[in-house]
UniProtKB/TrEMBL annotation:
A GO molecular-function annotation: endonuclease activity
UniProt signal peptide: none
Domain Type I restriction modification DNA specificity: 49-198, 296-410
Keywords tagged on the record: DNA-binding, Endonuclease, Hydrolase, Nuclease, Restriction system
Species of the source: Desulfonema limicola
GO BP annotation list: DNA restriction-modification system
Pfam families cross-referenced by the UniProt entry: Methylase_S (PF01420)
Name of the protein in its database record: Type I restriction endonuclease domain-containing protein
Family listed: Belongs to the type-I restriction system S methylase family.
Record's keyword annotation contains Membrane: no
InterPro entries: Restrct_endonuc_typeI_TRD, Restrct_endonuc_typeI_TRD_sf, Type-I_RE_S_subunit
Length: 433
């Protein structure tokens, strides 16, 4: 996949650092604080959310970048006055940003700041700059992106629920410094090779997304239109449903489902929370979480529906008897609805969109049981529900397998990328011009 245009260095020495191992004999080892300045915003300096503007200098947060890239259109702005209050964190091209709290180690290489060509930092970020010309910025970027630095941040982080790494701890990290010309060769090599890998990942991700969208469309179309494309249709008179086969009937949700409210009193039953339900697929995910309190007792073939942030599409068809805790509704189908068809219906985008539009609460939107109870749905005959469920089982299983294969390829490429960066910036392999 990547041409082997590198070799070993002539001589190596022990770095004296367990997680680094041996390094090329002519490379230097220095604490970061010896060759780089690290600056961050001290608190908010009184800056409030209400002061964010639609124009002016940019204010970058850790949420604005991922995978070393930033979408400037999503970045907040601040006033010129606020920008001038913190000159030490006014950004320049070739600065390196790193998140030091929460998700530690996210990186951004600053380049081509858009008009007005000014940007500053929010809190929880560090900006790295070389002392004199001690390092080539892109080389340091790749060193920060290496697995050895990631291991160090994992060891040095502090906190219990919200983790962070101090500026002092980052400064104590022992970095590797080849001669400056060699740093440039390494950085340019990694720029080229990681760009090739990233492009392959991007294309595979797009391919997986196309299959996921195909799956959604297939479920939407089949649970609302059926399998027979020649059947006569009728207008439902309901926007989210549209036209349906003429022989389908309309019911309120509560006419097809029993809303289960019985509190579980059996301490031996497995507790299921939202984190146990995979969004959009309905698969069960086993965890070691010990949920507190009692929830709703459910049986095999009951449907567990996540009422918090319903757009996450957490809909599980129970395969065992258990205890649903937290923000989960439990439904049991009546005589006119089979469980598997019901799950596909509740996983469909059309169903979830109308549910989501009814939610209350800005930060923690929840749907009410009364809204779902009175929601009108189109119901095929039982025999047709079985045929639809079997058809979707077959088709979605094939699509899921294709997506799984694609994701394995993506994971392999990501691992290759990490290994390549780590081996090159630690001198395990020598880049040849």
């Amino acid at each position: 996949m990547i041409k082997a245009d590198f070799e070993r260095y002539e001589a190596y020495k022990d770095s004296g650092v367990e997680w680094i191992g041996t390094v090329p004999d002519h490379w230097f080892l220095r604490h970061f604080k010896r060759f780089a300045t690290m600056k961050g915003r001290i608190g908010w300096q009184g800056l409030k959310y209400s002061e964010f503007t639609d124009e002016g200098p940019f204010l970058i947060t850790g949420m604005n970048f991922k995978g070393g890239k930033i979408n400037w259109d999503e970045v907040y702005h601040i006033s010129e006055k606020r920008y001038q209050q913190a000159p030490e964190i006014q950004l320049k091209n070739h600065d390196i940003l790193m998140t030091k709290d929460g998700t530690i180690g996210k990186l951004l290489y600053v380049n081509n700041i858009p008009a007005p060509y000014k940007a500053s930092l929010n809190s929880h970020l560090l900006v790295f700059r070389p002392i004199k010309e001690s390092y080539y910025p892109k080389f340091l970027y790749y060193q920060l992106d290496s697995t050895i630095f990631n291991k160090y941040t994992h060891i040095a982080k502090t906190g219990t629920t919200f983790f962070g790494i101090s500026q002092t701890a980052v400064g104590q990290y022992i970095g590797l410094l080849p001669p400056l010309p060699e740093q440039k060769v390494i950085a340019k090599y990694l720029d080229s090779k990681t760009a090739l890998i990233d492009r392959k990942i991007e294309l595979l991700t797009q391919k997986a997304s196309l299959y996921e969208n195909l799956k959604k469309s297939l479920i939407n179309e089949t649970v609302t239109k059926g399998l027979d494309k020649s059947v006569k249709m009728k207008d439902s008179g309901i926007d989210w449903i549209g036209e349906v086969p003429e022989h389908w009937v309309f019911n309120r949700h509560k006419d097809n489902f029993i809303f289960i409210t019985k509190t579980c009193t059996d301490p031996t039953l497995y507790k299921v929370g939202l984190e146990n339900i995979e969004g959009k697929t309905g698969r069960f995910i086993a965890t070691n979480s010990d949920f507190e309190g009692n929830g709703i007792e459910f049986k095999i073939n009951d449907i567990l529906f996540g009422k918090l942030r319903p757009y996450l599409a957490k809909v599980y068809l129970a395969e065992f008897k258990g205890n649903a805790v937290g923000d989960i509704f439990v439904y049991r189908t009546k005589y006119n609805m089979i469980p598997k068809f019901a799950q596909y219906l509740m996983l469909s985008n059309k169903y979830l969109d109308v549910i989501n539009n009814s939610t209350a609460g800005a930060k923690m939107p929840r749907v009410s049981s009364s809204f779902i109870a009175n929601l009108i749905i189109a119901t095929p005959p039982i025999s047709e529900q079985k045929a639809i469920a079997q058809f979707l089982d077959t088709k979605t299983t094939k699509i899921d397998q294709i997506v799984k294969t694609i994701n394995i390829k993506i994971d392999n490429l990501k691992e290759l990328r990490k290994t390549l960066i780590n081996d090159v910036v630690t001198g395990k392999i020598k880049v040849v011009k």
